[in-house]
Amino acid sequence: MTAKQVAVLGFSILVGGTLGCSPEPAADSPRPANASPDKGVGPVEPPQTADSGPRQSGARQRGVVATADLPKPDTLSEDDWPQFRGAKRDGVVRSSVRLARSWPADGPPKLWEVAVGQGYSAPSVVGDRVFLNDYDEEQSEWMVRCLSLESGAEQWAYKVPKRIRPNHAITRSAPATDGGFVFSIDPKCELHCVDARNGKLIWKVRLPQAYDSPIPAWYSGQCPLIDDGKLIVAVGGRALLVALDKATGDTIWETPNPDAIPVSHSSVMPIEIDGQRQYAYLTLQGLVGVSAETGEQLWSFPWKFNTAVAPSPLPLGEGRLLLTSGYHAQSVVCQVTRVDGQWSAAEVAAFPPPPRGWNSEVHTPIYYQGHVYGVGKSKRGMWTCLDLDGSELWTSGREASFGMGGYVLADSMFIALDGKSGALRLIDAGAGEYRQLAEAEILSGPDVWAPPVVSAGKLLVRDLGRLVCLDVEAHGEPLAASPGPKN
Amino acid sequence: MSESCRRDFLSHSGRAACAIAIGGVGVELGRRACAQDAWTIEANRCVNIRLGVTGASNVCESCATSCVLPLSAVRAVNDHSQCGRCCICPAYFDVLSPVGPDGLPTKKLCPRDAITRTAIGEVDPYDPLNNFYEYAIDEEKCNGCGRCVMECKDPAGLGSIRLEVRHDLCLRCNRCTIASNCPEDAYRRVGPEPPPASKLEGAHG
Ligand code: SF4
Ligand code: SF4
Ligand code: SF4
After folding, report:
1. In this structure, what DSSP letter does residue A17 have?
2. What is the least distance, in Å, from the CA of A367 to any CA of chain B?
3. Where do the structural domains in chain B lie, given as residue ranges?
4. Any domain includes A98
5. For residue A168, what is the nearest residue in chain B, using CA coordinates?
6. Cα gap A69→A51, rounded to integer Å
7. pLDDT tens digits along A40-78
8. Is A16 inside any structural domain?
9. Structure-model confidence comparison of residues A259 and A476, the more confident one
10. What's the pTM?
11. Are A282 and A323 in contact (CB under 8 A)?
């Protein structure tokens, strides 16, 4: 089934034992390593009926892992990609592994591929383990899967019976992991904490029930954030953002949400301004900044977005942030300052309004050496380099279009996908113009929207049916002098 | 009678008189003038249909305003087999309007309220924003203004809504006023030669 052929399926199962209607199985089941990677094995839960119960207690559930047996975080290396957009959440690979600057005619060597359900979820990688949110439509099971980066072999799969009707595909967010815990938000906004060693459930919370917030249209798109030993997620409803204890899911702080701003598809961005660690979060009403220590809202920047916001705010340094979104929204740069202890945010550059002005519907652009790079929504998705006022310095023009494909910056090259055809392209990031170094037909369209991931010279890309691992290392070439930008 | 005189005449006449004229004399005269010809819209030329520019503010309304008929012979048509049935359909809702507490835009897009929607399949009360809807266009109300067509296209829409010339309404004028006014040369007379391609260039497979 493709994203076009949207089937009308059924319902999810959302209520735990205490509510007494259509309970989920008490223990979410890790799948054995020898199970088929794309078809769940073991007992299949029958499709459940609708959960229309009240949103109250029963939203939280503890798993089966004993406190003494809780996992320990790994020490992450420069090759790890532990969350959405990498360790610094900026879409930049900082590995010192040199990457090939040209590919053979049939593309980089394929190391392995596995079947995946339709979606846009990107994987996260720590060491040899690849973590991926996935969905099995035949079994109506949502999953977190752990695969070997080396071979693609499945190590475990945490499975939850959950009926999700494809709505422009199903999965669309990446797990966050510290190598010990894995945090994933499923399409219906249930937050799961599982053990990275074996996929056993540690705790989970149904965010719509716990915070009285609706599941967004096109499902949850948010990628959770691990920062300073805490888990940070936006919830909407009763609280805008929350910080949770990684081991227990207990609340550390909540940001009040007096205007009942709903959760967006954007992900929380960690920033530091004037020496203060903060979290920036983009909603339909604009941008807010929250103290990382207390959760107190420090400032807000109202801006009109339409219908949905998927990109995250892009830090440009010195307290500046670029905000962009689709649905004809105008992009803008705001400046956050603190004067006499008072925080404020003000517009410094509004991009020309669409369709002339640049905006991005799905992806967060990448900031590199003073410029903003990304795929613009208009003009069929051209690769674009912008200055910080929104002037387009150059584009891919007629040479290439990218639809709404994802991209990453690695070893001074952008690796970008054409969201329509799945074509994989390598772009010189330092050329000052659109200079394509290589192109390969690995995936097939439509809707190849997941951002590519690079770890230790291996490139992970996916379309609506396959996750593919390619060897993109420049074997035999010397180590890079500079692994990446310093911003 | 010149095109403009005919248009004036028609627009100053009552609807019933027009209908008679359309149904009888007009059709007959038109058909006699060009027996094998019909007018059609070339999808890859029409700014409202072709891929590229989106946004109802960029719409071309010439099909609605140029036709000699009081209600244009061009109407929007939704191909249900291609429709994503999205809960937040950008052709149904004005996506620029503020989002209400129910998570939906607060205004509709169609200025003539010609689009209706009906929930289909199972309805999940816990997840109301991901239910599915069938979008139907009331052709008695639609005047082919193209706003919904402009919104129902890549990447947000799937291009299921198109503008079409309704051949049962079209007078097949020898000199079509829409064709004369079309800024994109998209309004084409088809006759013995094959019709233009309807598959959009660069669209999803
Ligand atoms: S073409 Fe115009 S009048 Fe007809 S349904 Fe679309 S928006 Fe309404
Ligand atoms: S935008 Fe087009 S494809 Fe999507 S639901 Fe509306 S009519 Fe259907
Ligand atoms: S006049 Fe031409 S461009 Fe305008 S809506 Fe009609 S066919 Fe399309």
Report:
1. G
2. 24
3. 35-190
4. yes
5. B84
6. 33
7. 222 222 333 333 333 435 788 888 888 889 999 999 999
8. no
9. A259
10. 0.82
11. yes
Q: What is the interface pTM, i.e. ipTM, of the complex?
A: 0.76
How far apart are the CA of A413 and the nearest CA of chain B, in angstroms?
26
Q: Does residue B155 have a cis bond before it (omega within 30 degrees)?
A: yes
Q: Tell me whether residue A416 is in a domain.
A: yes
Sheet bearing A423-428, strands edge to edge:
A92-93, A407-410, A413-417, A423-428, A436-441
Task: Kindly determine whether residue A361 and residue B55, on different chains, have CB atoms separated by under 8 Å.
Answer: no
Q: State the distance from the centre of ligand 1 to the C-alpha of A158, rounded, in angstroms.
A: 47
Amino acid identity for residue B44 in this structure: N
Residues in A closer than 8 angstroms to B155, CB to CB, are 326, 361, 377, 381, 403-404, 419
Which of B39, B42, B46, B166 is the pocket-test mutation for ligand 3 (most atoms within 8 Å of CB)? Answer: B46
CA distances from residue A474 to A78, A323, B192 in whole angstroms, order as listed: 17, 35, 59
- Domain at A327, CATH number: 2.130.10.10
Rounded to an integer, what distance in angstroms lies between the CA atom of residue B12 and that of residue A258? 56
A481 lies in some domain: no
Q: CB within 6 Å of ligand 3 — which residues?
A: B 41, 46-48, 60, 62-63, 146, 163, 178, 182-184, 186-187
Beta carbons of B126 and A12 less than 8 Å apart: yes
- CB distance from A47 to chain B under 8 Å? no
Torsion angles phi and psi, residue A191, rounded to 5: -100, 125
Nearest to A10 by CA among A38, A51, A40, A42: A51
A27 burial class (0-12, 13-18, 19+ CB within 10 angstroms)? exposed
- Which structural domain, as residue segments, surrounds residue A153? 79-471
> How many angstroms separate the CA atoms of B122 and A140, rounded?
15
**DSSP character for A299?**
E
Spatial contact of A450 and A406, defined as CB atoms under 8 Å apart = yes
Q: How many whole angstroms from B157 Cα to the centroid of ligand 2?
A: 5
> Total structural domains in chain A?
1
Residue nearest to atom 3 of ligand 3 (CA): B46
- DSSP letter at B72 equals -
Tens-place pLDDT, residues A147-203: 999 999 999 999 999 999 888 899 999 999 999 999 999 999 999 999 999 999 999
Residue with tokens 């009285």: A212
Residues B148/B115, Cβ–Cβ less than 8 Å: yes
Asked if A115 and A166 count as a contact pair (C-beta separation under 8 A), the reply is no
Which residue has 């060897």 as its token pair? A471
CA distance A435 to A427: 6
Q: Is the pLDDT of residue A221 over 70?
A: yes
Q: A361: CA distance to ligand 3 center in Å?
A: 27
A487 inside 8 A of chain B by CB: no
CA of B114 to the centre of ligand 1 (A): 6
Tokens 């969905």, residue? A135
Of the candidate ranges A349-353, A378-382, B75-79, B143-147, the one whose mean pLDDT is the lowest: A378-382
> Does the beta carbon of B172 sit less than 6 angstroms from any atom of ligand 1?
no
A285 interfaces chain B, CB cutoff of 8 Å = no
